Amino acid sequence: MMTEPVPRARLRRLIRRARVGDTEAFEELVRPLADSLYRMAASCLRGRESDIADALQATVLAGWEHLGELERPAYFKTWLLRICINECRRITRSTRASEPLEAVPEALLADPSEHEMPAGGENEEFLALVHAAGDANAPAVALFYGEGCTVREIAGMLGISEEAVRQRLSRGRKRIAASLAQGEAEEAAPRPQPAKDAPQPPTASGAGPRAPNAGATALPHRRPTA
Length: 226
Hints:
226 residues, Rna Polymerase Sigma Factor, Chain: A, Arc Repressor Mutant, subunit A, 2 domains, 9 helices, Sigma-70 family RNA polymerase sigma factor, RNA_pol_sigma-70-like, sigma factor activity, transcription regulation
């Protein structure tokens, strides 16, 4: 799930170019992080696509406008993920007012849906597990297991202590395990047979992220270290 990092020398060159207004360089910086940003936004916003799209666009705009504040180019991904988390928090707190976009290069206003991850498969299962961890624990779980961030990095991004990160990871794992166990029990339970010729109820679909079930992929075995 983790993307290959841009070589540091090239990362520095791209950041230098982007800082002087090169939108193509900035796009090259952001493109490899599109899936990571989507996973982060979907983890924080529980799969609400309109809010996720807003968070992604706001993250890209903020990254472009504040790139000069990035002190260490090697931490560009961590820096942009933190911006994404803050945008998600802002959206969660209140409906964000529309921002003026006249001064933003058109190339950076691409349809956020271009960065959305396809439904189904490994990514959907991962997000289902993250959501099962609970709202308070989901960002830490997504960063640790989805992005390979260290406990120290997560603490910095979330603005909490390293011990608090470990507690959220522990609580998240327990909630995921309980949800998986419940899913397995429901799968094993006998289902009532419909009466002959009885009409079948419609199947619900498109109702947001599905809950983990017996077929969901468990989180990788990774224990927190600083």
